[in-house]
Amino acid sequence: MNGIHTRRRRIGLAVVLLAAVAIASGLATSASASKHDNITLTVDVFGDFGYHDLYTQYEASHPGITIKEDTEDYAGHHTGLAQHLATGAGADDVVAIEVGFIAQFAAQPQNFVDLRQQGASALKSRYPAWKWGQGVARNGSVIGLGTDVGSLGICYRTDIFKKAGLPTSPAAVGNMWKTWSQFLGVGKRFQAHAPAGVKFIDSGSNLYNAIIAQANPAYYDARGKVIASTNAKVKAAWALTMQAIASGEDLGLAAFSNDWNTGFKKGTFATVTCPAWMMGYIQGQAPATSGKWNIASVPGGGGSWGGSFLAVPKQSQHPAEAADLAKFLTSPASELYVFKHTGNLPSEIPVLKSKAVQTFRNPFFSNAPVGKTFATSALNLKPQILGPHQGDSQTAASKAIQRVEQHKQSPDASWKQFLKDAAAVS
Questions:
Q1: Measured between alpha carbons, how far is residue 305 from residues 102, 208, 308, 354 in Å?
Q2: Is the terminal CB of the chain with fewer CB neighbours within 10 Å at N or C?
Q3: pLDDT by residue (tens digit) across 252-275?
């Protein structure tokens, strides 16, 4: 999951549904019934990964094991993990790491259990090479198993588009914005006829992060050098975002803020950059808007924003049990279950290609064929070069854009401060 994203939707479905999904898909879980002494395994995530029913199933098949989840916000979670590793204490048994931070933690293999020692090597063929490689340290240690990938689309409100006189079918909408410049052009048309108080996009930082997600390289080159200040693609993404703000298309909300959440409920913006995991977020924040959303292709042709990994810090008192839990939570059946009930797209090739994913339609999003749309994008994805402080650079950019939206700095002054902030954390 990226960038900056938080999953807060609680999954309250019966465990029997998971078993049905596993049987229907023919994909086995990694869990096996066994007897343990009383052990509590702690899992540290940012937001809600949709694991609660999975915990219940795992506990049922592993007598003696109890699972406790700690949930934090995106930035605090990763900052806290870095502190726990630095001090040698305080880390949970299983920790989630977002793709923007995976390079930073993969550079510290001494702090994590090498999951090859727990059978992870046999799982390599299930993953796209780039996804597997992101969780591998330079010494060959496997520190993380992939959870999801953040294939990109654009979620849009069909009812609001209709009021503004725009097409509403995904094909027609996608054809209007093959490029990001065309996307802003559609926004200009939208604003000319939009309902009072409604803007075309929710957040300048979400627009910017989607454009950056398609840039390769973006903040780092292949040697790990910071190139934000000299990369024309980064500057172009900033310029387009400033154009959206200046033209009045941007509502200027901070992603994952209370105001942003309210905007979903009240329909104060018409589009939102939509990685696969965003579907679950929208459903959780605005359940009454079911059937009013649809999903179109993203300008620029594909891309990925977000996706995460599960790792086991060496501080764990139960590394074997923690590793087995991580393997279960990232098993094909578990990832398929989470996808069907939250939208988080599986990162494993057999699941992405499975009939269960390829034929899946989401009724909340006007019965859009989200399985085929997002899975095809993931299978064809060309990954971005990641640096050790990718997530920190993205956070610095989002803050810079928000300063402009809030009229605290001019675009030029905020750009210069962003470059300084990005250089300071790299």
A1: 14, 11, 10, 23
A2: C
A3: 999 989 999 999 999 999 999 999
The partner residues of 302 in beta bridges, in order of sequence, read: none
Nearest to 215 by CA among 306, 128, 303: 303
Backbone angles phi, psi at 119, to 5 degrees: 90, 10
Tokens, residue 363: 């009724």
∠ Cα 230 207 416 (to 5°): 35
DSSP conformation letters of 260-296:
HHHHHHHT-EEEEEEETTHHHHHHHH-GGGTTSEEEE
H/E element, 96 = strand 94-98
Looking only at the bridges linking them, the beta strands covering 199-201 and 269-275 are: parallel
Residues 21-33 have pLDDT tens digits of: 443 333 444 444 4
Place of tokens 């993953």: 127
The DSSP call for residue 177 is -
Instruction: List b or e across 57-74, with b for residues whose CB sees 16 or more CB atoms inside 10 angstroms.
Output: bbbeebeebebebebbeb
Helix (H, G, I), strand (E, B) or coil at 257: coil
Distance CA 191, CA 187 (A): 6
Residue 25: other Cβ atoms inside 10 A: 19
Residues 165-194: pLDDT tens digits?
A: 999 999 999 999 999 999 999 999 999 999
CA 358 to chain centre: 20
Residue whose entry in the numeric block shows the structure tokens 């040697």: 223
- The span from the CA of 410 to the CA of 401, in Å, is 10
CA atoms of 368 and 372, how far apart (whole Å): 9
DSSP, collapsed to helix, strand or coil, labels residue 65 as strand
Answer whether 0.90 is exceeded by the pTM: no
What is the pLDDT, as a whole number, of residue 18?
A: 43
Q: How far apart, in whole angstroms, are the C-alpha atoms of residue 295 and residue 376?
A: 14
Band of pLDDT at residue 1, cut at 50, 70 and 90: low
